[in-house]
Amino acid sequence: MTQADTKPDTAPPAQLSWAARSRANDEIPEVEPISEAQLPLPYPINPEMVRADFPILSREIDGAPIIYLDSANTSQKPYAVIDKIAQHYRTHNANVARAMHVLGAEATEAFEGARAKVAAFIGASRSEEVVFTKNASEALNLCAHSLGARLGPGDEIVVSVMEHHSNIVPWQMLCERTGAVLRWFDITEEGRLDIAAAKREGLINEKTKIVSVTWVSNVLGTVNPVRKIAEWAHAHGAIVVLDGSQGVPQMLTRVKDLGVDLMAFTGHKMAGPTGIGVLWGRYDLLADMPPFLGGGEMIEIVRMTGSTYAPPPHRFEAGTPPIAQAAGLGAAVDYLARIGMGSLARHEREITAYALEGLKTLPGLTILGPTEPIDRGGAISFKLDDIHPHDVSQLMDSRLIAVRGGHHCARPLHERMGIQSSTRASFYLYTTRADIDALIDGLEHTISFFRGR
Ligand SMILES: Cc1ncc(COP(=O)(O)O)c(C=O)c1O
Question: Helix (H, G, I), strand (E, B), or coil: what is residue 162?
Answer without folding.
Answer: coil
